[in-house]
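Q: What would this complex look like in 3D?
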Amino acid sequence: MLNEQLIMEMKERVFEANLALPESGLVKLTWGNVSEINREAGVIVIKPSGVPYCTMKASDMVVTDLAGELLEAGMKPSSDLATHVELYKAFEGVNAVVHTHSKNAVMWAQAGREIPAYGTTHADTFYGMVPCTRQLTAEEVASAYEVETGKVIIETFKKGGIDPIAVPGVLVYGHGPFTWGATPQKAVENSIVLDEIAEMACVTEVVNDAVPPIPQYLLDKHYFRKHGVNAYYGQY
Amino acid sequence: MLNEQLIMEMKERVFEANLALPESGLVKLTWGNVSEINREAGVIVIKPSGVPYCTMKASDMVVTDLAGELLEAGMKPSSDLATHVELYKAFEGVNAVVHTHSKNAVMWAQAGREIPAYGTTHADTFYGMVPCTRQLTAEEVASAYEVETGKVIIETFKKGGIDPIAVPGVLVYGHGPFTWGATPQKAVENSIVLDEIAEMACVTEVVNDAVPPIPQYLLDKHYFRKHGVNAYYGQY
Amino acid sequence: MLNEQLIMEMKERVFEANLALPESGLVKLTWGNVSEINREAGVIVIKPSGVPYCTMKASDMVVTDLAGELLEAGMKPSSDLATHVELYKAFEGVNAVVHTHSKNAVMWAQAGREIPAYGTTHADTFYGMVPCTRQLTAEEVASAYEVETGKVIIETFKKGGIDPIAVPGVLVYGHGPFTWGATPQKAVENSIVLDEIAEMACVTEVVNDAVPPIPQYLLDKHYFRKHGVNAYYGQY
Amino acid sequence: MLNEQLIMEMKERVFEANLALPESGLVKLTWGNVSEINREAGVIVIKPSGVPYCTMKASDMVVTDLAGELLEAGMKPSSDLATHVELYKAFEGVNAVVHTHSKNAVMWAQAGREIPAYGTTHADTFYGMVPCTRQLTAEEVASAYEVETGKVIIETFKKGGIDPIAVPGVLVYGHGPFTWGATPQKAVENSIVLDEIAEMACVTEVVNDAVPPIPQYLLDKHYFRKHGVNAYYGQY
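A: Here is my prediction, written as structure tokens for the whole assembly.
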């Protein structure tokens, strides 16, 4: 039996986080989705597929189990659900996932390039370059596209030795960004940052076509000023 | 005798779709127009020419027959009406046409280049590159400019073997975009998508000047995820 | 004796046109000014210098004679008044002048380049390229800077054989745009168009670095579709 | 004993100036901070660290002495406080400091380039190029990062013989902009101008890759039209 109170609160948070996407300019039409997982309760809550933000209600959010199987009658979940499920299975500590087609992140995904850490705005959130996956093969796309999208993200982090907690986002080649975080709000903030640093990085290269990434010691300083046991940014 | 109820509903839809152009940032001043056709009823409804969006009313929409001849006393129709008429004659299944001077689509039209399918944002709406017409000749411009604009669009689709239902938009060389769809709202959405992918494609090339279009299998996957009998995106 | 009613109406129009600059995104802080002339009445009305748009009132508009001498006690006029006066003296049929530092037009002015007519958006308002003045000399800047700014604009149109009615705007080298028109509203619209085509032209060259201007016959068609005795755009 | 009235007024001004950052589009999330100093009273008031703009109150502003030591119980100050303190110690006549990650200024900071004075929009506020600091060394970052950030700014102005009153802003290499002024409002305005001229300069180089800065006589004219004893811009 589902914990009604917990589900209702998750729906509310996921709903609010989904609304934050068009409000922050990251999403046009219905191009985005946010989900949240509660592993103990065994539930994932995600945006319904293709529903306009302006008519969507918190109660429209779709509830599934940890394998992405529907637990309630209601709307169809986002078609990207299977990608979210793969990420939750592989990335411990990640409680929320966001997918958008935000303009600047998509440009880098389409260009098939990782985003170098060109400055402290990047380093404050992403501890190192934001990786870009390899292109999916025809077989992967034909078989279980959304599952394989999740798998190629996980492969990218494993092969690159990247910690998904320290680098909470990725570009899927030819497609667009996924970000994640400890909460839906934090995952959305990471999408905002990713799009911003994508734009900054592009024009940085226009202004100086031979610019190197910032040195490791500055990356360390800014990341650990905000994250980890020695963080001293904010009110905690 | 005209079906008053049907006309009134068409006017309302065309009016709302025209208002959506400045609201979505696609149109400045009076640079845009939307029309809808009802082939059975024998009517086209289109925006009046050069009327500011802020003072325009649904009742100002202009009603013509399928050849673009006025059926009601009232305002002059958009000067691009003849282009709309040509498109309706040639493109079955198209019930609404939109013309704008949206910035990013115009840039590609002025550059005289088709927009390559660089990513899934493109593939979700346009099944392949968005074509750009050849330049109109002096004779075509001098004779019946707006009719010839329609004809060169149709020529572009015929010569290229392009299905206008699968690729619901075009760039007219040196001019700007036209899009279309099953409804005025859908045609406007296609204008929004076209402008967005035009911007994305431009910067994609800045970030990587040797990027190829996405492979056919990814184009197929994304287009048919949203369109056709096997579509599984959305709530239908 | 001044015609109070006429002055009040001019102040109201000039005030509204000045407010339209930040509203349309052309102007930040206090970077812009609009004036209107009535040659028969012998008056010019112009924005006061350096007054924030949010506190400005119609009654703050400054009234001068045709030489730019104050006719009323009150605020100091825009420091660019002398440029407006020169343009009114030289350009018959021009009743309003606008100066802004709108981003895209400034970029071309700073680049010292005229804006080629790359498309019909340009041709609908500007009958040919938008010229850029030569750089002012040290002597011109030192003597009567704002007067000389006006003179170099006039020189640009005379030497280039350009009709200021057909090309209602210019870029001042290293500085920014001036536009004009039959009314303050029309002059502001021309500033909106100028900034839009400046942006379009820039990215057009990024997308295709060998693009030529549109042919003369297309320029003619679009310009004369909207202007002159054979115009057929709009409701007149 | 603190002067309560003076502190309250400083808090109000600093609060308003901080709010102006997201309102003017310079700041996303919590990426910015404004402070004000009163040297006679021996106090600095600055934004608290990491507090969202939407919930922040004037009373949340943090009060410190001239060395940055807290004078009131309450929130933690912005983590950049030590940089502000260094600037106040070195730059007489500067009463307010602003730090942002505004997009266009960051792009130049990341590119490691000073912004050339390409036009009068620049010259109206910055009397010459906006400098970019050298990169901080690993030792400087490791020791007292925020203090060293202040010191490298001061070094940049000293070595370059630049007057911080005439050039009220700087780019910190790989990081972003700091601006300052006689009041919090003026310092924020300088941040707005800096971001605007950063964008203009970037695209100016795209439109003309061989453009020189404006000549000294034009820089002089525009700067001194607005600043100093012979200024004639505005209502004073």
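A: To summarize the key features: The CA atoms of residues 214 and 230 of chain A lie 21 Å apart. The mean pLDDT of chain A is 95.
Q: Very helpful, thank you.
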